[in-house]
Design a protein that fits this description.
The protein has 467 residues and is α+β, with helices and mostly antiparallel strands. It folds into 3 domains: 18-119, Quinohemoprotein amine dehydrogenase alpha subunit, domain 2 (Lipocalin), CATH 2.40.128; 139-284 and 379-464, Rossmann fold (3-Layer(aba) Sandwich), CATH 3.40.50.1820; 287-375, no CATH class. It contains 11 helices and 18 strands. The protein has helices spanning 191-201, 226-241, 259-269, 286-300, 305-325, 331-346, 356-367, 370-377, 381-384, 404-415, 453-464; strands at residues 18-19, 30-38, 41-52, 55-62, 67-71, 74-78, 81-86, 91-98, 101-108, 111-119, 139-147, 154-162, 168-174, 205-209, 246-256, 276-279, 391-396, 422-426. The strands form 2 sheets. Strands 1, 2, 3, 4, 5, 6, 7, 8, 9 and 10 form a 10-stranded antiparallel sheet that branches. It has an 8-stranded mixed sheet with strand order 11-12-14-13-15-16-17-18, with helices on both faces. The chain is globular, with a radius of gyration of 25 Å.
Length: 467
């Protein structure tokens, strides 16, 4: 199977203590540093092994993923061998001491990755995030609460308004898929904080908010679909539209990734929306995006072409089945049976840590959630064609998640006669609109840049120049 980028949880405090004899002379005591090859990138891994009251304690750092102090569940030493168990990460390290070096294997998610480590001293640091805004800010900022049509859902957000009389152009920011806070924070990056800061410094009011069930917002994220998130987004837009100092005819929406699907849903129904900006917004259904995304990411990760073909064939079979049976009450159970059958027919390489039956069951579950079924079957064109306000659709040429090859031409066709609208692709930018080498998601955390300055300037100028 291909090597996926390793993602570690933080603040793990679950310890299993192992008594050690003669810990003072134990050659494993100390700090060890090495690198693993994860999806073609070199990620640093460090183990800090210490002895406290005759007990061995190990903590792990993955500094390139901004993950520090992860406590091992158990550390076992036998002669010149050491095993470090990290079950909450689904990981384990087996190593052997050779000439004051550790040589061994890091296990996670069915992958076995060589990891050679040497002693080190000093502090490890995470990749820099130089664009995160620092106070004091040259604009007004306040915490707000937004009511939605659902009494169980109240959105908590941050409103930034430029200094001066106004009225100012204004936007709400809609995040991509998965539970996101108001800053769309991931891997130490805060794209929406950077974007809001830039826009408000340049005369544009911005409202960004925590997704329902995230941060200070109430509600259940896991039971919602893109259509539910669209209701939340419209409530946020209505709130912003009513604010003092906001230009009522230039109150728009910026949506990233799934947010680029939600923005047209809102604007197609609400003709008062002044404009929308789609950051890597899809123009085709998720049923087309998912296999395209899988193929591009696997190839960028160096996966064997045969395995890529097997994966995309299995994915396409699953998607076709969902299109045909989306309303079935027994979809998950029936799809599980089908996937098990397809695994045999395709000779599909199930991960070592799983059986064909459990893999089929887990895969069927992930593809039959309400959110996933909605994403697979919803066509963005059904909403984009009914949008009457100006649309700016932006792509990164290195985007492997919502690719130019699958989405740009259909978007151009949808907007070719749409007044005031345009489609633009930025060279070298990835799905997060960072300057990248390959566009692989495994690069996101290693790139210091959060948002390309060229991208920021382009968006700001387009909004400010709207007539």
């Amino acid at each position: 199977m291909k090597k996926y980028m390793l993602l570690f949880t933080t603040a793990l405090t679950f310890l299993f203590t192992i008594p050690v004899v003669n810990a003072q002379t134990n050659p494993f005591i100390g700090s060890w540093l090495g690198k693993i090859d994860a999806s073609g990138l070199q990620l640093r891994i460090a183990f800090h092994i210490s002895e406290q009251e005759n007990i061995i304690i190990t903590k792990m750092d993955s500094p390139d993923q901004n993950s520090f102090g992860n406590a091992a569940h158990k550390t076992t030493i036998s002669g010149d061998h050491i095993t470090i168990d990290l079950p909450l990460m689904g990981a384990k390290y087996d190593g052997k001491l050779e000439n004051d070096s550790l040589k061994g294997t890091f296990h996670q998610g069915g992958n076995e990755i060589s990891l050679q480590m040497g002693r080190f001293e000093g502090q490890l640091s995470a990749p820099k995030r130089l664009q995160i805004p620092q106070a004091p800010f040259p604009y007004k900022e306040k915490e707000v609460t937004i009511k939605t049509p659902d009494p169980k859902v109240k959105l908590s957000g941050t409103l930034t308004i430029p200094n001066g009389k106004g009225p100012f152009p204004a936007v709400i920011l809609i995040s991509g898929s998965g539970p996101q806070d108001r800053n769309e924070e991931l891997m130490g990056h805060k794209p929406f904080h950077v974007l809001a800061d830039y826009l408000s410094r340049n005369g544009i009011a911005v409202l960004r908010y925590d997704d329902r069930g995230v941060g200070k917002s109430t509600g259940d994220f896991n039971k919602a679909t893109s259509l539910d998130f669209a209701k939340d987004a419209e409530a946020a837009w209505n709130f912003l539209h009513k604010q003092k100092g906001v230009n009522k005819t230039k109150t728009g929406i910026i949506g990233h990734s799934e947010g680029g699907l939600i923005a047209p849903i809102v604007a197609s129904a609400n003709k008062h929306v002044g404009f929308i900006v789609l950051m890597a917004g899809p123009s085709v259904p998720g049923g087309i995006i998912i296999p395209d995304q899988q193929e591009l990411i696997m190839r960028a990760s160096g996966t064997d072409e045969k395995e890529i073909r097997q994966q995309t064939e299995l994915t396409q079979l699953i998607i076709n089945y969902i299109f045909q049976n989306a309303s079935s009450a027994s979809l998950q159970q029936d799809l599980t049976v089908q996937i098990e059958k397809w695994i045999k027919e395709l000779n599909f390489p199930v991960p070592k840590s799983s059986s064909p039956k459990s893999f089929a069951r887990q895969t069927a579950y992930s593809y039959t959630t309400d959110w996933m079924k909605t994403f697979i079957t919803t066509s963005p064109s059904d909403f984009i064609k009914d949008v009457t306000c100006p649309v700016l659709a932006l792509f990164g040429e290195q985007d492997l998640q919502v690719s130019v090859r699958a989405n740009m031409e259909p978007m151009q066709q949808l907007l070719h006669s749409h007044q005031g609208s345009s489609v633009h692709a930025f060279p070298k930018l990835n799905h997060l609109f960072q300057t990248s080498e390959t566009g692989s998601p495994s690069e996101y955390l290693l790139i210091e840049e959060t948002l390309s300055p060229t991208f920021l300037e382009y968006v700001s100028n387009w909004i400010l120049n709207l007539k």
